[in-house]
Structures are given as C-alpha cells and as structure tokens.
Request: fold
Amino acid sequence: MPKVKEERSCMQCGNKLFGRRDQKYCSDQCRVEYNNILNRDVSKFMTNINNLLRKNRRILEKMNPNGKSKVTKTQLLDEGFNFNYFTNEYKTKAGKSYKFVYEQGYLELEEGVFALVEKHEYVGK
Reply:
C-alpha cells in the first residue's frame, strides 16, 4: 500500500508547507508573527512590570553608588521609586526584611529612612 502524503499548512498564513515533517511555518516572518500574536497580552503586561523593575533598580543604583548608603523615603519617591515592585525579599535572623530589586536592596530603618545595600549573592536564591 502506498504512503499517503498528508497536506500540511503554515500555522500563520495557511500556505502549503514543503520540506521537513515537523515544519509549522512557511517562513521566519510567519513564525515571528504567529508568536507575537500568541504572546501579545502577556508580553505587554510583562514589559510594563519589567520596565517598573528596571526603573526601581536604576534609582537604587544611582542613590547607592558605593554599595551602602541611607536615603529618605521622600528622596526615593521624588526619583519615581515604586515600593510595590521588587524581585525578592531577604529576612535576616534578627527578623529584618530587606526587599531587593535584583541585586539592589533596601531596608526601612525608621519612619522615612532607608538603608540601601548591594548584594550579588542574594540574586537567584
């Protein structure tokens, strides 16, 4: 019995596919367009969050050039820092809670005063 060739078509434009059996798209352009459409909503949301995180990191890095410093909440807010967005939290044995934006961290010491730190070893844990 002869093999029946199954007709395959591009997932984006519907054009007939030739070549590899696992091929899904007729061109790189169709592959990129398909995935852009598939991820559009997620990408926009994630892009907005990542932009906020990058902005917070830049602010902390700018205000903490030597790896340790103190700033006021007003100074952070004036720069546009958003306290709702950080990447991780580190709790010390003493119960203090540092919040980090990647390797740049902050800890509220007293009302309106923050200690800024830079710790590369906390990233990724």
